[in-house]
Amino acid sequence: MKDYAEIFKALSDEGRLKILKFISGCERCACEVQEQLDLTQPTISHHMKILTQAGIVNCEKKGRWMHYSVNKEKMLEVSEFIQSVVVCSDDTIINNFKECD
Q1: What is the pTM of this model?
Q2: Structural domains for the chain
């Protein structure tokens, strides 16, 4: 559960969500993130540090630039966790309705 708390904390910032959305299709260079999202290099570094520490973004240095991509396996795991919460909630709601009858 602690891993999920760290992931959701990382996702709780609008700037990080924009970055995640931008890099979701393919690997992106930090310079592309900077240009597309109009962020400073220190801001990008700060956000990427949080996203990589949470395990939801991969980074690799190529030349003088860092390249970032979404950790699809980790995001799938998070998606499955959310789905399990939704299913559990649905079952709880159904059981509560049955108890009321």
Answers
A1: 0.80
A2: 2-71 (1.10.10.10)
Nearest-Å Rg of the Cα atoms of the chain is 18
28-29/57-62 β-pairing: unpaired
Q: Where are the beta strands (DSSP E) in 1-54?
A: 28-29
C-alpha distances (whole Å) from 60 to each of 41, 63, 65, 81 are 16, 10, 9, 27
Cα–Cα distance measured from residue 77 to residue 49, given in angstroms and rounded to the nearest whole number: 20
Give the pairing of strands 57-62 and 65-70: antiparallel
Which of these, 24, 17, 22, 42, lies nearest to 32 by C-alpha position? Answer: 22
Angle ∠(17,58,87) on CA atoms, nearest 5: 55
Strand arrangement of the beta sheet that strand 65-70 belongs to: 28-29, 65-70, 57-62
What is the mean pLDDT of each successive set of 10 residues along the chain, which is 101 residues long? Answer: 88 96 94 92 95 96 93 94 76 55 53
